Amino acid sequence: MHIHISTRDGVPIYLQIVRQIKHQIASGILAPGRELPSIRELAENILVNPNTVARAYRELETVGLVEKRRTAGTYVAEGPSPLARHEKVRMLSERMDGLLAEASQMKVPLEDLIELLHQRARAFAKKPPLQNPQDQAP
Amino acid sequence: MNQPIIEIRDLKRCFGKKVVLDGVSLTIPTGGVFGLLGGNGAGKTTVLRHTLGLLAAQSGSVRVFGLDPVADPVRTLGRIGYLSENRELPEWMRIHQLISYSQAFYPNWDPDYAESLRNMFELDPKAYVRALSRGQRARAGLLVALAHRPDLLVLDEPSSGLDPVVRRDILGAIIRTIADEGRTVLFSSHLLDEVERVADRIAILHHGRIQLCVPMDQILSSHRRVRIRLSSAVSRFPTEGIWIHCEGSGHDWSVVAEGEMHDIQTEVSRLQAEILTVEPMNLDDIFVARTAGKPLTAEVRS
Fold first, then answer.
1. Long-range contact list for B166-172, CB < 8 A, 24+ apart?
2. Residues in chain A closer than 8 A to B33 (CB atoms)
3. pLDDT tens-digit profile of B64-105?
């Protein structure tokens, strides 16, 4: 499992771990039933405090995306999770909120923004999709 | 009851006429990683040397494991692993001599652990300390600090001047130390990236005083950069209450605020101002805002 931590943009590290694992589950990179690295292993691997990793795992467990099995070991939850869809919607909403905020700052009305989105969708359909920016090196 | 591992109360220290610590109070809980931040000359090393009993309090008190480290060095130092900023080591020894020499000081020395650290750090037992590179010297110092599995690990600027590979070793050592339940790490640093990665709590030392002492996960969520527009121009922005630091002039100000979003909204409407943007801040920016100069006072121009 690949996690990239950045301390530049003020996002708490536990949240970066939560978001990246959620993203990997939602996009199928982490399949259901897959075992996550142990807290200590991930902490040493990405060089962050083990308590931070533990907090991220707890959060993922609370929303049902991962589950603890037996005594130790954390696994990606089995079966089609309704949360995966919910999570996709949430991630897209987050991006859209940013877009809406910027448009409002530039005084671009919503109708224009929607029209622009349609235009981009048509242009996007014609060319090969861009790489996921999260997969690119910083 | 969970006793704090270190308790410092109103510690003052002058070197000649220079006041280095001007009433430092600090409580460090047992377990976890505590990061002590401050610029050059802020007094970080002086605080750490007091906890090791290398300096006696001129006024105020220092307790480590509930004991006075100056009066009771045997029961305190034996439980502390220390890596100093200058990594003083006996220059004339070879690595294997350094290991057996250090072992004699610590009843809890773990020879197997020392050997595994020596292997991991690729330290040649026959190499002389004086011939070690900066990075290897830091690793040798870390071996001595870790091999007796101390309850408290004190690291003074552990990564300063080291390449990224050795820095990884040091961060890894901090992480492994607290992954063993109940151990505590106290380290000073001005490298905020690594502080954010490993610290559970941080304190900022500035002008010989503790400016801020908070859990790591609170500091990022409680600080924001707010761009605001005032209805009437001022020559100085009132940096008081929730406002920590400001930049700007006239109507437009970029202000660092500490508090909840609704506190910010209340204050902004009290100033008859408008919020333009609110941005999260990284630890670097918060540190700069917290240690930049002295607070300005209000001077409103009509």
1. B166/B134, B166/B135, B166/B138, B166/B139, B167/B194, B168/A47, B169/B120, B169/B121, B169/B139, B169/B142, B170/B138, B170/B142, B171/A47, B171/B197, B171/B198, B172/A44, B172/A47
2. 49
3. 999 999 999 989 999 999 998 887 889 999 999 999 999 998
Q: Would the CB atoms of A10 and B172 count as touching at under 8 Å?
A: no
Does A7 sit within 8 Å of B200, measured CB to CB?
no
The answer to whether B55 and B2 are in contact (CB under 8 A) is no
CATH topology of domain A13-76: Arc Repressor Mutant, subunit A (1.10.10)
Give residue-wise pLDDT tens across range A68-122.
887 778 989 886 565 667 777 887 888 888 889 888 888 889 999 999 999 998 8
Structural domain boundaries of chain A? Answer: 13-76, 82-128
Complex confidence, ipTM: 0.80
Domains and CATH numbers, chain B: 6-207 (3.40.50.300), 220-291 (no CATH)
Contact between B220 and A50 using a beta-carbon 8 Å cutoff? no
Interface of A with B (CB under 8 A): 5, 7-14, 40, 43-44, 47-51, 55, 105
Residue of B nearest to A55 (CA): B217
Q: Do B197 and A49 touch (CB under 8 A)?
A: yes
pTM comes to: 0.81
Cβ contact B176–A44 (<8 Å) = yes
* A13 neighbourhood in chain B, CB within 8 Å: 196-197
For residue B278, what is the enclosing H or E element?
strand B273-280
- Integer Cα distance of B99 and B118 in angstroms: 9
* Strand partners of residue B36: B188, B203
